[in-house]
């Protein structure tokens, strides 16, 4: 499974590992800003896209909005993972599949086949 995270402050892969998720079968990439977000999404072609809302220079909401109106293939799963629940709800209403606080992203069912517990 290919996972692309847009998050500017926290190492999401490390958070998954510390929560008991086996990432050895994941191809994981993290972008620390949203510069050229659509180009990165298109070139990496992730199965799972993780979007933080508060991320410079373009918010996760705006990245999602651009993605959904572009010709770039939509990832199978899009997760809004802001620290602010209202921002996650807004992204889910726009078209994200899940909304969760970033500190609980490891609890999503999408990782169930990768759990080491």
Key features of this structure:
117 residues; alpha/beta; 4 helices; globular
Summarize the structure.
The protein is built from four helices and five strands, in the order βαβαβαβαβ. It is an alpha/beta fold and 117 residues long.
What does it look like?
The chain has 117 residues and is an alpha/beta fold. 29% of the residues lie in helices and 17% in strands. It has helices at 12-18, 37-44, 60-68, 85-94, and strands spanning 2-6, 27-31, 48-51, 77-80, 98-99. The chain has a five-stranded parallel sheet with strand order 2-1-3-4-5. Strand 4, helix 4 and strand 5 form a beta-alpha-beta unit. Helix 3 (60-68) runs parallel beside helix 4 (85-94). The relative contact order is 0.22.
Could you give the topology of this structure?
Blueprint: E1 2-6, H1 12-18, E2 27-31, H2 37-44, E3 48-51, H3 60-68, E4 77-80, H4 85-94, E5 98-99
Helix pairs in contact: 3-4
Query: What structural class is derived from the secondary structure elements?
Result: alpha/beta
Number of helices: 4
- List SSEs in N-to-C order: EHEHEHEHE
Taking the alpha carbons of the first and last residues, their distance comes to 19 Å
**What is the assembly state of the chains in this entry?**
single chain
The radius of gyration is 13 Å
Largest sheet: 5 strands, parallel
Q: Say how many strands there are.
A: 5
Give the integer mean of the pLDDT values. Answer: 95
Percent helix: 25-40%
Q: Can you tell me the residue ranges where pLDDT is under 50 for at least 5 consecutive residues? A: none
Widest β-sheet, arrangement of strands: 2-1-3-4-5
Proportion of residues in extended strands: 15-25%
Shape: globular
